[in-house]
Amino acid sequence: MNIAFHGAARTVTGSKHLITLKNGTQILLDCGLFQGMGRVTDKLNDFFGFDAKKVTYLVLSHAHIDHCGLLPKLVAEGFEGKIFCTSATMDLARILMMDSAKIQMQDAEFSNRHLREGEEMEEPLYTDEDVTKTLSLMKIVEYEEDFEIETGIRLRFTDAGHILGSAAVHLTITEDGKPTRITFSGDVGRYGDLLLKSPQQFDQADYILMESTYGDSLHKDLDPIENMLLEIINNTCKIKKGKVIIPAFAVGRTQELLYALNGLELKGKLPDVPYYVDSPLSSKATEILKNHPEVYNNGVKETLKVDHDIFGFKGLRFIESVEESKALNANPRPCVIISASGMAEAGRVKHHIRNNISNQKNTILMVGYCEPKSLGGRLIAGQKVVEIFRDEYEVKAEVRSIKSMSAHGDYEDLLQFLSGQDPAKVKQLFLVHGEYEVQQHFAGKLKDAGFKHVAIPEYHQVFEI
């Protein structure tokens, strides 16, 4: 058999890894949207590098849009097989893909209203009808269930601790009477996450596809997250009388922020300013998380004993309508606005940044990984002028970040995730979902840990296994 890497190859988005068996059966691991890759992003999302009609099955590790966001396009281009995922992933993927379709249609409409001479009309990658068809193909496989996809192909999910429903994928593929065990890490969460349980150990694998987003980093902040939020909000809202704009992924990051702010209220420290979650998707995702309390770690379970609503506190309001969202920009009152997307590449937060970035009273607070070419990545890099909706804006607002607020494990977490493996029995470890320099650094760490065969695939590269 062989495996081809059609996304998240020497970059962190667009996860797509295609296994092709000797009999022609094709298993696609994830089908994610490329995000924040600058002007080449649209071209990358237009071209899969394989024929969607020939893909037999799809296994989805989790519902983040860089892992599920091109599923509707795959279906629109002829994929008719089953999509296997956990029940929580299905719940989240439903709202995320619908939201993605809506954002694409809205952004295309906005851009087309502001077309300049010689520019072509924009089209969304897919519609809500494509999403509905995609959802009809989804099949739930729960954690630790030994599921037979077909004779000779078995699937098992273990908890990856990344977001609600996230899983590491374990396939046992038998060809010519010989079993081959393939593990795809998906995205690996942190040990000691604010909300979720830690990643699970898993059985020995022959081949491993391993994410490496933070393969050269340790998430060591000097202050706890609550303390950093308190300092930033007080300085911006109370002293400078400005706004704190927080681009945050609707799934995972937004709920962690709400949990931390709720913690400040429980301690009597929460600053008395309005707090807005300006993302209908975030509101839906928060409700889904409330419906899956089995994923909470012991610390959260203890908090639930004294506070039944761990994501709610005084001054919090969820914004639904576009009119209400626009009104936030017209209101000069100091406040905190949490809005998707996390890389500030799309959605309402991009409008909030555009309206507040050139005022030195305000703060743009980044709380997770940003692809370097994304708007969030350019802000973190310290660019003084950024392009938003084709216009340039001077960056006068303060840009801050809380690096420890990441759903991705650092290199110590990633090594711990692999600690149950005998490196001598791993025939090949492929690094995916990471920037190339970071992956090279992590490859060295892996070799020091005994993994002698580490490869860093290029985009569309194929390996015989």
From TrEMBL:
GO MF annotation: an example: hydrolase activity
InterPro entries: Beta_Casp, MBL, Metallo-B-lactamas, RibonucZ/Hydroxyglut_hydro, RMMBL
Domain of life: Bacteria
Organism placement in taxonomy: Bacteria, Pseudomonadati, Bacteroidota, Sphingobacteriia, Sphingobacteriales
Domain Beta-Casp: 254-379
Keyword field: Hydrolase
Lyase as UniProt keyword: no
Domain Metallo-beta-lactamase: 13-249
Protein name per Swiss-Prot or TrEMBL: MBL fold metallo-hydrolase
Organism the protein comes from: Pedobacter ginsenosidimutans
Stretches that traverse the bilayer: none
